[in-house]
Design goal:
Length: 334
């Protein structure tokens, strides 16, 4: 009986020991899985980055690249130059110049992940992955707090009163439109007079466009498919171009006036100066014509008297000639 009892106690102890060992093994496996350690893999790649702010990143937080988990954070330490974050990757992420490493929130309830952006594949490869420079993460709550501060500053600076005044003006404009004030208000009101006038204007515009489309009037002929008016206009424009070319070359009198050769201009200027001199002399009453045009009537009176005497002399000569003719006819009969 004693041997059976001993065997039974030994079996019980072995069973308890096996159970305890199984519990420890299970805890070890669970710890390894939760911690993300790769104890049986050789293809583990380590990186280290320096972040200006880790934003609550902790060990075993996932590392994300191209939207998938490629590893886990193994260490987070604060130092003077920033927060040093180490991570083990299961895939060889290749970094290029222009890469980015930052921390992103997984939800508003908490949780962080280290996000890797490799950069442009056409850029040179970054060999030193143990000294990567990270960027400051975007904190949703910090941004929201800053936005609230901006809104509060906006309200405290009187902008809220301006906004209220603007809204009041919009309400007044809306009331005016509703009551039918102004042109737009009349259009929105039930008064059909303005609508009728507007419809008439539209009809007139349609009539004009129809006439243009049918080739009526000068503008319509230019828009019509008949190219005669267009050809005439093109010929006119061509003639104008030829005239402008001749003027530019200095051909013709007007061309000479417009050319760089100023001889004709000088001659014309001299002639104009002579005419001005003659006009000044006439205005001063110099010369016979000037005296005739002046307010002094002496020359005019003398000339008028001379003309009167000459006319009387001609009258006397005509009468004497008539008398002699009559006398000769009278005595010729004897």
């Amino acid at each position: 009986m004693s041997d059976q009892k001993k065997n039974r106690e030994l079996g019980t102890e072995l069973a308890v020991g096996a159970f305890v060992a199984a519990v420890f093994i299970g805890l070890a496996v669970f710890t390894i899985v939760i911690s993300g350690k790769n104890l049986f893999r050789d293809n583990v790649f380590e990186i280290e980055t320096v972040l200006p702010d880790a934003m609550g990143l902790r060990r075993n937080d996932p590392v994300i690249a191209r939207g998938t988990t490629v590893g886990a954070v193994t260490d987070v330490r604060y130092r003077e130059d920033g927060v040093h974050v180490k991570a083990q990757l299961e895939a060889p992420v290749v970094f290029h110049e222009g890469y980015d490493v930052t921390v992103v929130s997984t939800s508003i309830l908490g949780g962080r992940q280290l996000v890797l952006r490799e950069g442009d594949a056409a850029s040179p490869v970054v060999e030193d992955v143990l000294h990567l420079q990270g960027s400051k993460p975007a904190d949703l709550f910090e941004d929201a707090t800053a936005a609230v501060g901006k809104i509060r500053e906006f309200a405290e600076n009187g902008a809220l009163d301006d906004l209220r005044a603007f809204i009041a003006n919009l309400r007044e404009i809306g009331d005016n439109l509703t009551s039918g004030e102004g042109t737009l208000g009349h259009l929105l009101s039930r008064d059909d007079a303005l609508y009728t006038n507007l419809y008439a204007v539209v009809e007139n515009i349609k009539l004009v466009t129809d006439r243009l489309e049918q080739g009526q009037s000068s503008l319509g002929k230019l828009l019509a498919e008949d190219s005669k008016a267009y050809d005439d206009l093109e010929a006119t424009l061509d003639n104008l171009k030829k005239i402008s070319d001749r003027l530019e070359k200095g051909e013709g009198t007007l061309g000479h006036l417009l050319s760089s050769d100023d001889k004709l201009y000088q001659d014309l200027a001299a002639a104009i100066a002579d005419l001005r001199s003659i006009a000044d002399r006439l205005e001063r009453g110099e010369g016979t014509v000037g005296k005739l045009l002046s307010s002094d009537t002496e020359v005019y009176d003398n000339l008028n008297g001379t003309l009167t005497d000459a006319r009387e002399l001609l009258d006397d000569l005509r009468e004497a000639n008539t008398l002699s003719t009559f006398t000769s006819l009278l005595f010729s009969g004897f």
